[in-house]
Amino acid sequence: MDLWFTEYYTKNARFSIKVDKHIVSVESEYQRIDVFDSYLFGRVLVLDGYLMLTEKDEFIYHEMMTHIPMAVNPKIRDVLVIGAGDGGVVRELTKYDSIERIDMAEIDKMVVDICKEYLPLTACKLDDERVKIYYEDGLKFVRSKENAYDLIIVDSTDPFGPGEDLFTKEFYGNCYKALKDSGILVNQHESPYYPNDALAAKRTHQRINSVFPVAKVYQAHIPTYPSGHWLFGFASKGLDPITDLDPDWNSLSIKTRYYNMDLHKGCFALPNYVKELFENA
Ligand code: AG3
Predict the structure, then answer these.
(1) Same domain, 41 and 112
(2) How many structural domains compose the chain?
(3) pLDDT at site 1
(4) Segment 56-71, tens digit of pLDDT
(5) Could you tell me if the CB of 53 is within 6 A of ligand 1?
(6) CATH code at 260?
(7) How confident is the model at residue 162, as a pLDDT?
(8) Is the C-beta atom of 187 inside 6 A of ligand 1?
(9) Which of 35, 54, 73 delimits the end of a domain?
(10) What is the pLDDT of residue 42?
(11) Ligand 1, from 52, 89, 122: best to mutate by most atoms within 8 Å of Cβ?
(12) Tens digit of pLDDT for each residue in 144-192?
C-alpha cells in the first residue's frame, strides 16, 4: 500500500513523507491532530495538516529555542513556555538544574495527552516537578503577569488557526510586561523563503521590534519545515545574544546534538535576502 502525508507549502510546492502507519486522527476543540509512523523520520505530529515535529529532526528546533537564551543568561530561574504541548522545549529546559519553575500555557489539553501517550521522546519531562501546565490561551495567560519571568519561549503553530493571537503586537506587549528586567523572549519565527511564510516572518519581526529594545533573528536548518530554512526571534530588554553570551556555558556539560557555542554566534548571521526582508520591515 502506498500511503503518504503531504503538506502544501504553497499552491505549487509540497512536501511528502511516506507513511508506515496512521496512529491517531482526532478533532479536538481547537484543531485536527494526527500522529503517524514514517519510514524515514520516525513518528510525526501534525496539527491541522501542518507538520509540527518528526522524531528525526525535532532536536534541532527544540535545542535552538532553548539553549540560545539559556547560554545568554545563566541566571534564568523562572520560565514560561507558551504552546509547546509536545514537551520538546520542556525536555531541553529540564537539562538545567538552575531552572526552578517552568510554567507552560497550552490551549489544547488533547495535544498534551496524545503526545504523552505517543511521543515519549519529546513529552518525557512533562511530569518533572518544576513543570506546571495551564490549559489556557497563551495570550490570556500572559496578560495577567507582571515582572514574573526571566524567559518566555513561544513555541506556537503558524500564524493562522489557534496560534494566531501569539503573533500580535498585544501579545508581545504583554510578554514584555511579564518579563523581568533581564528578560528574554524567544519565538518560532516562520521561514523567510516561500512568500506567505516570509510575509509572516516580516510582520512578526516588525511587531516584536516595536515593543522590545533588542530584537534579533536567528536561523537553523530544519529539514521537515517549509523550505528547511527556519527562523527564530530573540528579543530582550537589554541582553544581546552575542556580546552577552556566557563564556562558561560549556562547563555546564549540557548534552546537545545541534547547539554549540560556535553555532550560537554563527546563527545570527543572516543571508542578505533575509536581512533585506527585515530591514524593509
Ligand atoms: N511549532 C510549529 C512550527 C511551524 C511549522 N510549520 C509548518 N509545518 N507549516 C512546532 C512545535 C514543535 N514543538
Answers:
(1) no
(2) 2
(3) 82
(4) 999 999 999 999 999 9
(5) yes
(6) 3.40.50.150
(7) 73
(8) no
(9) 54
(10) 98
(11) 52
(12) 999 999 999 999 999 887 788 898 999 999 999 999 999 999 999 999 9
Give yes or no for residue 88 CB within 6 A of ligand 1: yes
C-alpha span between 120 and 113 (Å, rounded): 11
pLDDT above 90 (res 52): yes
Q: Are residues 151 and 124 in the same domain?
A: yes
Domain that holds residue 36: 4-54
Average pLDDT, the chain: 96
Q: Which atom of ligand 1 is nearest to the CA of 50?
A: 8
- pTM for this model (two decimals): 0.97
Pair (48, 62) in one structural domain: no
Catalytic residue ranges = 155
Read off the CATH number of the domain in which 35 is found. 2.30.140.10
